[in-house]
Predict the 3D structure of the following.
Amino acid sequence: MMDSFIHFLLHRFFVTGDPMIYGADASIALASIGIVVVVTYLKKWKWLWKEWLTSVDHKKIGIMYIIAALLMLFRGGVDALMMRTQLALPNMHFLTSEHYNQVFTTHGTIMIIFVAMPFIFGLMNIAVPLQIGARDVAFPFLNALSFWLFFFGAMLFNISFVIGGSPDAGWSSYAPYAELSMNPGVGQNYYLVGVQIAGIGSLASGINFLVTILKMRAPGMTLFKMPMFTWSILITSVIIIFAFPAFTVALALMSIDRLFGAHFFTIASGGSPMLWANLFWFWGHPEVYIVLLPVFGVFSEVIATFSHKTLFGYAVMVWSMVAISIIGFVTWLHHFFTMGNTAEVNAFFSISTAIIAIPTGVKIFNWLFTMNKGRIEFSTAMLWALAFIPNFTIGGVTGVMLALAPADYQYHNSYFLVAHFHSVLIAGPVFGIFCGLYYWWPKMFGYMLNERQGKLAFWVFMISFNICFMPMYIVGLLGMTRRMYTYPAGMGWTPFNFIETIGAFGMGAGFLIIAYNIVWSTLKGKRDTTGDPWNGRTLEWSIPSPAPEYNFATIPTVSARDAFAVAKTQEDQENKKERQLFQPIHMPNNSGIPIIMSLFMFIAGFGLVWEWYWMVIPGAIGIVVCMIVRSFQYNDHHIISIEEIERTERAAGRLS
Amino acid sequence: MRENENQAVQSEHAAFPWKQVFGLLLSLALTFLALWVVLGLSLSVHATLTIIIGLAILQALIQLFMFMHFTEGTEPVHQIIGIAFGLFVTAMVVVLTLWILYYAI
């Protein structure tokens, strides 16, 4: 009994035999002990629980999303550097083939689902309620639940590499390889359950922000007076609501296949492996726009602000996003042109894919015209936005090349494809996220990120990005396919691969400079005492930095686009006097239920991964109990008194 | 916007939610009915599919009316756009999937 238990622990439960995994074990243990010791020593447990872990404040939830996403970016980046090290030279033995498969799988899954998504959710949590003049999101409790579901989903996925083994079927987890017969063990279960839990949180966030934007706008702010970032989040929310259910269903079906012996995606008993690819990409393609449209919104804000002009072609920007959201649902087959479809099917999706490039191109011209005759200020945020335009356009144009089905038979699954999607996903979401972080950082924390270090990080990262991915286009055309763990010498690929690896480490250096910049600025950064460091155009810059708990002491009335820019030009005495009349503010209470319920999700999920139903059942019961407790909570809000508002506003220098 | 009080949405605690409880029971009944049609009856594949698709549509309507505040709200244009887009996406995933997989394995 004891022997078999120890055998299980050493041979199935813990991943053993690889020195790098032991290193990871040690660093996880040390980091966990370190955190516990530091928090205990500083007596911060109560503060951590009351101020952060149970918070339903959208600003704090946004910050927690961003911290989690930065940590996940580090993990995904280390995965990338491991792959680039393995591929730097031919016939390397840094990683074994199995280990390499696991690393590219976790790299892809983490970068999309646990980096891009939480960064986007973080930015929208911070900026959207402030841009529309609201005091919180529509459903603050649900917002906290979304965050904790994402967090525990990510943790469940991440522990796979030290407990039980990582998934290795790629981030797209194609059947039949991801099915039980070819892929026994718990790795794929971690993918299915971890991503599912995070996905529930994403769906809830989509609903939350749709309702927030439709229902909670300041008086006078009609839809066509909203800031462009808010517009992009409105449309993204709609895409989330309609795309994520397909993924939820696909993940559930494959989980049923693996855990309960069904055959939805296996050829045996009449299943269809291709149906997995079909459902995956029905979500997967709109997912690209879920991470892309919000950063289009960020760039629209940043380019208008630092050109000191109003955005060019506002209505066209909106309608092009609407067009993208509609057409984005009918292009998914271009991810598997080569899977044996008829010519008619390929032709339809080839054309729809080429069409979706049009509204995207329209937006590029709108940003260029916004800068035309503007007074451009080269801040760090603006540099990221400026670099986005040419770099993203290269990714977009190679995307149109891939969209042509006959040509795609040449490019498919080559490094040309790898270069293309990194061009769009790094020059788009990653540049956009850094752009948004530098832009909104003062509003989040009340101090500025150092501009000199920020610009250095930008140049290092942007140049390294091109050094890393430009050679990939060439090496792809020379015949190198994606996901190969090593390659022979004498193919003409070696110099390109070596250059790519140098670029990858350069991007790592750029990330480290950003991390240094954050630490340095936290200690010595310039305070933002005005609340409006960039001469901003939208309402979030009208309040102090960091924003008080209730955001707006009095709700602003909006009469035009760029509401704050207009208000600054017409600031009159009457307006100022009116601001003094405060009313008590009604705010939601903090709640421990979101984190506890998500912890039960984690427990039930871990049980499902290992098929330990003795663990699933108490986890599931815990989830239901949390729901019932929440249903009978009646005192879920508190009132902030006028005196307290006056005190806070006076401390921020807003009251004379 | 008219009902915007610029506060977190407050939960209403009016009467006992009979409509929701009834909807939940109806949904459960329909789900088990579909399961019974597949496992308990041995109809032809065609008949089974027709019946369970009919039950699925019925269940979707129950969800819309009993849980999703379909008949409430002050801005019907949001509802109409939402339903129209939902129908579009559903039609695309069903029709195009059938078209794609018809010739595939």
In short: Chain A touches chain B through 46 residues (CB under 8 Å). The domain at 54-591+636-651 of chain A is CATH 1.20.210.10 (Cytochrome C Oxidase; Chain A). The CA atoms of residues 305 and 536 of chain A lie 6 Å apart. The two ends of chain A are 75 Å apart (CA to CA).
